[in-house]
Structure formats: structure tokens, C-alpha cells
Amino acid sequence: MYVSGILEITSVEIGVVAVKAINSNYYLAMNKRGKLYGSKEFNNDCKLKERIEENGYNTYASFNWQHNGRQMYVALNGKGFPRRGQKTRRKNTSAHFLPMVVHS
């Protein structure tokens, strides 16, 4: 069975996580302009603040970067492409993710 798209969420410190793709071993990172990218090495851009929302979904915001004093969130558009962090808000459903346990 071929499985792709599985992400591992690891705690870095209280309320801060790192998201790593199992297949590629790349970390999810956000630069200071809000652009998402994959980093082979763990760095400060890879630190994300995890918050469990009232609806049970999780949001992930850059730990290090803000835009005009506002958090920049990991979000996907309707076609599954990443949205720039500057255009995202915590209440946008495009920034809501539902982590699931995967058994191999």
C-alpha cells in the first residue's frame, strides 16, 4: 500500500510544534513574508504555534513571524495550494486542520 501526505506533528516546546512530512522528511516552514516552504533541516521558520479551536479543529501560526502585528496562519485554498500567511486569519476555515492518528 502506497501512502502519501502523512504529516508528523512533534512538540518542540509548550504550545509550539514542528510538522514533518513522513515521505520526504521535509519540515513545514513559513518565512517572514508568510510563504510556506519545505525545509530539509529544522530551523526557526519551522516553529508553529498550535491552537485547538472551539470547533475541534487546529490552527497553526508562525511562531517567529507576524504581519502588521497579526499572526500568519498555515492555510490552503480550495484547490489545495498554500495561501500566503499575510492573507490568513484564525477564523478562516482554510486555516483549520483536523489531525488524525494513523496506524501502519
UniProtKB/TrEMBL annotation:
Signal keyword on record: no
GO molecular function: growth factor activity
InterPro entries reported for this sequence: Fibroblast_GF_fam, IL1/FGF
Any one Pfam family match given in the protein's UniProt record, by short name: FGF
Superkingdom of this protein's organism: Eukaryota
Keywords recorded for this protein, A-Z: Growth factor
Transmembrane segments: none
Family assignment from sequence similarity: Belongs to the heparin-binding growth factors family.
Protein name: Fibroblast growth factor
